[in-house]
Amino acid sequence: FFFPGHPNMLTRRLSTASLACRARVQLSSRSGLSTLRLGLAPPRSGLSTVAPPPPPPPAAAAPPEEEDARPFVVRWWKSILFWSFVASWAYSLIQQNRSRRGLDEEEERVRACAPVNADEILELRALNDVSSDTLATLADVAGAGARHDGATVPQVLAALAKAVGQPVREEYALERMLLAVLEVRGAALASPAEAAAPRIPLDDAALALGFLSNGPVVERLGALYASASGGGPGPISAERFVAALGVLAASGQVPPDKQVALDGVGRNALGVNRSWYVEQPAVSYSAAELADAAAAELAA
């Protein structure tokens, strides 16, 4: 097997085969995969050496749904209940808003009919600076005839200026207040002469002008009580109390929001207040209703 100076026959064959079948190893990375190519040409595009997976079997057809034969109300009772509640609540808000708007309009009407407003009352009190004692002498200054038969508006203003000792400032506003009292009381006058110059009782005139007192609130209330009771120490009768409230309301001394209210519409057969779904009319209080409301508020 070995010859001197010559390689082994097996070694020669192996060397020849190694030279003929030289392998080129290349490592390439594509999409995170390593491919070992042993000197082979890349496969053509569009060709794959891996057989595609078989298609999935067709899905079984779902059974047809059965139609719900229940009534519409039964199927959608939750939605019907929810939207009925929302609609009822919205309708109630609309009715309450209408009632409130009617109350505001009635309050504005009463405010427009008042002879003076709250600002004018404060201004008249500050400009004239009359004491309660001076106002108490109004009947004495007007005279015995005026005390018995009343006095005209100019006579009342003249007696007030005489009691104060100086001309009354903003006299036209006081005249409006006294004329409003005469209009509300609406005394039936027999003769044209009396109709041309109506007379106002001095107690009512003192009530209408009692706000001019520059004293504290308690003092003004005492003066109003004395005027309403006719100067006597006894209690005020219900009839006189109603008349006094009418004078104060007519002269603009009762706030407009206290003279108006919503007329209650009661409850239905189920006990639900009808104001939830019925518009409440706005009404103005009369003197008697003001007295009842004041008595109820005091009793509460």
Overview of this protein structure:
With 300 residues, the protein is mainly alpha-helical. It has a domain of 137 residues. The strands form 2 sheets. It has a two-stranded antiparallel sheet. A hairpin with a 2-residue loop joins strand 1 and strand 2. Helix 9 packs across helix 13, helix 11 runs antiparallel to helix 12 and helix 13 crosses helix 15. The protein is elongated and about 130 Å long.
pLDDT under 50 segments (min length 5)? Answer: 1-7, 23-41, 187-191
Mean pLDDT: 79
Rg measurement, Å: 52 Å
Provide the helix percentage. Answer: 40-55%
Shape: elongated
> How many β-strand runs?
4
Give the class from helix and strand content and strand pairing. mainly alpha
- Give a quick account of the main beta sheet: strands, pairing sense, barrel closure: 2 strands, antiparallel
Region (Disordered): 44-65
Biased composition (Pro residues): 51-61
Features:
300 residues; mainly alpha; two-stranded antiparallel ribbon; 15 helices
Give a nutshell description of this structure.
Residues 51-61 have a biased composition (Pro residues). The model is unreliable at 1-7, 23-41 and 187-191 (pLDDT under 50).
Produce the secondary structure layout.
Blueprint: H1 9-20, E1 25-30, E2 33-38, H2 72-75, H3 77-113, H4 118-128, H5 132-136, H6 138-142, H7 144-149, H8 153-164, H9 171-185, H10 192-196, H11 202-208, H12 217-228, H13 238-250, H14 256-259, E3 260-262, E4 282-284, H15 287-299
Helix pairs in contact: 9-13, 11-12, 13-15
